Amino acid sequence: MTSCDHFLPHGTYVLLNKKDGTALDLSGGNKTIEGHDFHGENNQQWKFTNTGHGWAIESMRRRNDGKPLYLSIRGKLNERVHVVPSVHPLSWYVWEVDGALRIGWPGTDYVVELGGWGDEKPGTHVQIMRLKPGEPCQLWYFSRCSIPVAPN
To answer: pLDDT tens digit string along 14-49?
Structure first.
């Protein structure tokens, strides 16, 4: 396990689920985080910024009022809680496992996973679950965007 600071410079990335290549996607009129086929538009681009306590993960798509949206959760931390966009940044713990990222809630064994054990169906929700080592639906390949799409 390697801390994100050592291999992931601040920047904008596309995240693809290790299980099936589904892209992390801000969807549903900026109300949901889902898995979708990769297209590379700004709703599939994520800016990683070190907060000093972890990593804020910001969508490159903005709300209609211009405010940024960050990865967050709906409700209390627990299994199957959906990952959702929020105007309030959280500090996620991010680390490298076998060439992919694992995104977790600091100080816990909860991580971000593609629902349905990595269901490749477009629109599959992204959720929080307990870490299951070796489970590919809890890992995300990352590719730096060479020319990020400007936030809208």
So the answer is: 999 999 999 999 998 899 999 999 999 999 999 999
> Residue 42 has what DSSP assignment?
G
Which residues, at least 6 apart from 62, have a Cβ–Cβ distance to it below 8 Å? 68, 69, 151, 152
Of 68, 31, 55, residue with least CA distance to 112: 55
Kindly report, residue by residue over 69-108, the tens digit of the pLDDT: 999 999 999 999 999 999 999 999 999 999 999 999 999 9
Sign of CA dihedral 42, 45, 51, 53: positive
Give the tokens for residue 67: 């405010």
Q: Are 100 and 139 in contact (CB under 8 A)?
A: yes
CA-nearest of 109, 151, 148 to 138 is 109
DSSP of 61-129: SPPTTS---EEEESSSS-TTEEEEEESS---BEEEEETTEEEEE-TTSSEEEEEHHHH--STTEEEEEE
**Is residue 150 within 8 Å of 59, Cβ to Cβ?**
no
